[in-house]
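Bench notes, afternoon.
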Amino acid sequence: MSKHLHAPLVQTHGVEKVYAAASKIAALKGVDLIVERGEFTALAGPSGSGKSTLLNIIGTLDRPTKGTVSYDGKVISTLDVDELSDFRLHALGFVFQSYNLIPVLTAAENAEYPLVLQGVEPAKRRKLSHEALKLVGLEHYAERRPDMLSGGQQQRVAVARAIIHRPSLILADEPTANLDSKTGAQLLDLMEDLNKDHGITFLFSSHDQAVLERARRVVRLQDGELKADEVRAR
């Protein structure tokens, strides 16, 4: 009998990624990984270990050369471009180290952008945007553009954008990389609260020791292979 009563939120099976350069660089070599709902997990490893590649493949921003990625029991790595776009838009949230905000839009408009793509009507978008910005402590900065916000505030807007459509999984690639230690700690506090209070699953790619110390599970990669999987009691 399977130890999983329900399908894992994410499962990779035999995932390989080979970049088609002359040297045929293997970024991932047969990675098997299960992420359950509610996890607060970090992928760790030195530069070139494959952690960002694995995160991008789980987020369907890249495709594996071999192997499969499943989400809630359904294989998603074989979906076509339109199906993948729809999947990302509804199931996933993304937080990047460079924030990736749209410079000409206000904080509120950046936060609600996924809802624009979903075709949600304006009044509902604005209401949900206000709620998301309030959750990240920026309700009073709604009309400011990114160039009027600090790095930490911009990253909080990125988190608001990531959670506005209530995804099951947020993928965060080096989210503290451009922040000072105090601001990074505040961002991690926020993410922990969202994880505990709203049940959002977080999967990080990071070499920041502060992130790794907060994670309740650390999956370590080296040279494209999974080398260690440490679950911490909390």
